[in-house]
Amino acid sequence: MANWNAEPVSPETHASVVSAAAQTWRRPPLIRSRALRWILGAGALTYLTFALGSLEVSWLRLYQGLERGWRFIQGFLLPDFVSRWSDIMIGMQESLTMTLTSTVVGVLISVPVGIGAARNLASPPVYLLCRGVIALARSFQEIIVAILFVAMFGFGPFAGFLTLSFATVGFLAKLLAEDIEDVDESQTEAIRATGAGWWQLINYGVQPQVMPRLIGLSCYRLDINFRESAVIGIVGAGGIGATLNTAMDRYEYDSAAAILILIIAIVMAAEYSSGFVRKWVK
Amino acid sequence: MLRIEHLRKRYRTGDEALRDVSFTVPRGQITGLIGPSGAGKSTLIRCVNRLVEPTGGRIFLDDLNVTALSRSQLRKARRRIGMIFQEFALVERLTVMENVLSGRLGYVPFWRSFARRYPPGDVDKAFALLERVGVLDQADKRADALSGGQRQRVGVARALEQDPELLLIDEPTASLDPKTSRQIMRLIREICAERNLPAIINIHDVVLAQAFVDRVVGLRAGEVVFDGLPNALSPEVLTRIYGEEDWTTLHSRQDREADDARSLDGREIVDGELERRASLA
Amino acid sequence: MPIVTSVDGSVWRRRAPQHQLALWVGWFALICLFVFCWQVMTKDTIWSFVWDAPRQAADIGDRMIPPAFGYFAELIRPLWDTINIATLGTLIAIVIAVPVAFLAARNTTPSARMVRPCALLLIVASRSINSLIWGLLLVTMIGPGVLAGVIAIALRSIGFIAKLLYEAIEEIDESQIEAVTATGASSLQVLDQAIVPQVMPAFAGISVFRWDINIRESTVLGLVGAGGLGLKLQASLNTLAWNQVTTILLVILTTVAVSEWVSARVRRAVI
């Protein structure tokens, strides 16, 4: 690239700089260092070759799969809600009750933990403890936690309830703590200047600022918990996941499709109504 | 040359933004469009290149009826009309150079613009324009790294990169401080004089309009209520355009500003003004 | 109004009486709902198991420590598989999600009545179903293995990426589009020169974020047979080899920590 960044002093040099540069222009690349670009490009290509190569694709199996896939799609077009209705009812019941209870309990625990994990509100030991709890709750995928809780508490939705509550605390407390740390300090300063106590500070200075987002996030977590509740049943923690697993094992594609349609419908309904709640809270 | 005949714009809500607007802008003339908020100034400008679709009337660019063009023909017409925006409207994450070159989009096929391989003539022109507006040293900087005045200069360069036959300028100085505003208006006027370009400038600052345009069109509630020379903007005329207001302060400020302009810019500007007034006649 | 006038003068309350009443009713309803759900949920819970839990936990904890260090060597290939599942799945999802996002965004969709709802439906369907369930479905159809995992991750990620991307597309600055259109550019050129540059940072952030989440999800996909570390986890659980489980959990923890670090770095760099 011609150095037309150089400072033009006199009109003559300026003109020559312009005309020398005028021949070519290329867009400055995203990564300036040419060497780095080559390394990244080559690295990406190598990785893709190895990764794709490691996929052992049995075309025969894939072809057979298409036939099964077709049967599955047919199941979607004519879903069977009837034959396994009692199983589906029980599963849905477990999922829905788990979702509500775990979200409520999760929110209730997240609030103190979140406050304790906010650097501008908590003392250092409390801060470390709460941040530790959050990190622990976030480290593992819900299903691993579900496996552990099932081993400890037995099969059934109670273990699922604990799993989801635990996950909710990890999710909400972290976001709440970040929100509290981002709060407008001038507002809390003003409240503190009136001589307010710590609890009053929280109630007047912090809560009004973080409440709307907290409610929004709780609704979002309700949605996530429902989706998760449909899965942890696979490892025995209750919910519609177990019913789905059984249906798939028995190749009852139409029942499985019915369950999936129910899940999608409930998620859509939840999203729609959460939009209402969020608007109402604003 | 631009000819607007009986232009009407009625929105679906029933608002009549423009009612029967007609005027002509000959080559080389800078027309200032003034009027209160909601008078239809922005709508009028956007109707000319059909960013807003008129509901009635015709617009002629030389002999071409812009209002009757199909989509692909409209694209070709648009590249003959350069537009400069109030909030600069540069693509912020692209560099200054890319923004100026985007003026040629109507002339190059998609693959060229995608690969950023514009014809050498376009690139030369871009460099020359950047130098002319005074931001050549910023060419490879991202547009959002520039100041307001610099961004507007790039906006001017982008419009000129199209080799336009007409300039539409929508409140070019609304987001700029007074000194930069004058610099930009001066730049626009010089460029229009150099290229004999007609221009319509939508401007809210009456004082600025008087100092830099050849002719003023006053719009109120979608209708033309004044069409004449800038120095004919008496308090009565201003009342007709803007409504009841004590215009005496404006007048004394106008006089002071006009004096400043004359003393700062010197004789050349006064001579240029005479030429332009002659072309109006 | 929070201000109520009476004979003795104006009284201020935080909320108007009807509003306050509505809130009380709402809270009461929520508590009733909670109690109801709790009863239904714990109907079949064997409480003796629950109280036994600490002892169980101690027992398992005992068997988990010390971790089986020799097992690490067996985990290298599954770890490679897991990373591939996440990466390839994310890449495929990006390729599909980008056009879907443009079809779903109000300002770029070709038809707001027909195309947009279809795109939105696709996104909801993809989002509603957890990648583990997608994995379950695919394993039943095309058999166990990494391919099922890749497709499962891809199917789930399409909804996530497309949703966040179309929200970003709807928030772009319209004046930049207007300006580029005014030069006579075609719609493709407007897309390339005015829309894409604006959504680029959001797009990069979303993709990396989803990749990070996918790493987590890929580690457990093997539980339903879709390849990766999950397969080893399933095997160890079945044989109650808890110390092997610990090793696997440690590997998962490290991988997730690394991917989170990478994701945070990349997202900070593209602002």
Structure commentary:
The complex is a heterotrimer of chains A (282), B (281) and C (271). Chain A has helices spanning 11-21, 34-54, 59-77, 85-116, 124-139, 142-153, 157-181, 185-193, 198-232, 240-249, 253-281. Chain A has 282 residues and is mainly α. In chain A, helix 10 (240-249) packs antiparallel against helix 11 (253-281). Chain B is 43% helix and 20% strand. Chain B has 11 helices and 10 strands. Chain B has helices spanning 41-48, 71-78, 96-101, 110-115, 120-133, 148-161, 178-195, 206-212, 235-242, 248-265, 267-280; strands at residues 2-10, 16-25, 30-34, 56-61, 64-65, 81-84, 166-170, 199-202, 215-220, 223-228. In chain B, the strands form 2 sheets. In chain B, strands 6-7-8-3-9-10 form a 6-stranded mixed beta sheet, with helices on both faces. In chain B, a hairpin with a 5-residue loop joins strand 1 and strand 2. Chain C has 271 residues and is mostly helical. Chain C folds into 2 domains: 1-46; 74-269, MetI-like fold (Orthogonal Bundle). Chain C has helices at residues 17-41, 47-64, 76-104, 115-128, 131-142, 146-170, 174-182, 187-221, 229-238, 242-269; strands at 3-6, 9-12. At the A-C interface, helix 2, helix 3, helix 4, helix 6 and helix 7 of A face helix 1, helix 2, helix 3, helix 4 and helix 5 of C.
Care to give the gist of this entry?
Chain A is an all-alpha fold and 282 residues long. Chain A has helices at residues 11-21, 34-54, 59-77, 85-116, 124-139, 142-153, 157-181, 185-193, 198-232, 240-249, 253-281.
Protein topology:
The complex is a heterotrimer of chains A (282), B (281) and C (271).
Chain A lengths: L10 H11 L12 H21 L4 H19 L7 H32 L7 H16 L2 H12 L3 H25 L3 H9 L4 H35 L7 H10 L3 H29 L1
Helix pairs in contact in A: 3-11, 4-7, 4-9, 4-10, 5-7, 6-7, 7-9, 8-9, 9-11, 10-11
Chain B lengths: L1 E9 L5 E10 L4 E5 L6 H8 L7 E6 L2 E2 L5 H8 L2 E4 L11 H6 L8 H6 L4 H14 L14 H14 L4 E5 L7 H18 L3 E4 L3 H7 L2 E6 L2 E6 L6 H8 L5 H18 L1 H14 L1
Parallel strand pairs in B: 3-8, 3-9, 6-7, 7-8
Antiparallel strand pairs in B: 1-2, 1-4, 4-5, 9-10
Chain C lengths: L2 E4 L2 E4 L4 H25 L5 H18 L11 H29 L10 H14 L2 H12 L3 H25 L3 H9 L4 H35 L7 H10 L3 H28 L2
